[in-house]
Amino acid sequence: MNIHDFDFELPEELIAQVPLEDRTSSRLMVLDKVTGKVEHQSFKNILDYLHEGDCLVLNDTKVLPARLIGEKKETGAAIEVLLLKQLEGERWETLVKPAKRIKPGTVITFGEGLLTAECIDTGDQGGRILEFSYDGIFYELLDQLGDMPLPPYIKEKLDDKDRYQTVFAKERGSAAAPTAGLHFTEDILDEIRSKGVSIAFITLHVGLGTFRPVSVDSIEEHDMHSEYYQLSAENADILNQARANGGKIITVGTTSTRTLETIADEQGHFEAQSGWTDIFIYPGYTFKASDVLLTNFHLPKSTLIMLVSAMAGREQTLTAYQAAVEKKYRFFSFGDAMLIK
To answer: Do 182 and 328 belong together in one domain?
Structure first.
């Protein structure tokens, strides 16, 4: 399939720049993947589409304040570093701007020397392996010196760091938020439980792939970067129980979907496991785990809209996206939600 098969016109003013004050006040488009019927709802009506015995799957990854602004030690030139993935010891996979200034042996300082990093190796498209040195606790320094790594299409400053964090975030390690989960509050999760819907948690630390566009025309040639995931025995049991009882599994976000599709066997059974996944889901894929998908509205020609198209069909997805543009839905991380049932 060609990347241009997943393109659409998106007016820039529809890209949500700031989160809504109330997490649950977003709009909700509901797409029936069988009939193609589209409904326009409020996110608060999500309970109408969840039923007793179903299982809602949430990604409990926690976003690191992974964007650091430092200085090149030799010249004082400003350098931006985005932490992507911790390797062995104090070494991290990162994205650096401007990358051409950072070569092996280059030292970057942050917070007037509270934190320093030496470039160990180079990669493509701005990728650098940095080794950090510091006194104290790394994550405390990161909280002090780092900013939330908002996507490049968000130009506004985020006043409250917690608004780029889900209310159930627990396992720190992500370079970006699982944004479909941003719509939930503790109150609405309690309402969901009260309806007899179980909630299972998985972890997938969102990494490099989120920041890299598809750069090939034939999507089959695209290489996904690997991301760390884990599923506990307790949560595997919750998923298997819902499946055994005939309930539907509703994955919240493409990250939850990719994780469950990595773990599930051909019969849709789950076992506790952890590891690295580079699964790439696009039209033609047969889902083993996810019955229903709740997600946001995604970038044209992105791997995310390809996953949505695998679930709902490419033509139906693009038709729904056109309706979203016409009705001025808010797009991307701080935008509105879409339920594919």
So the answer is: yes
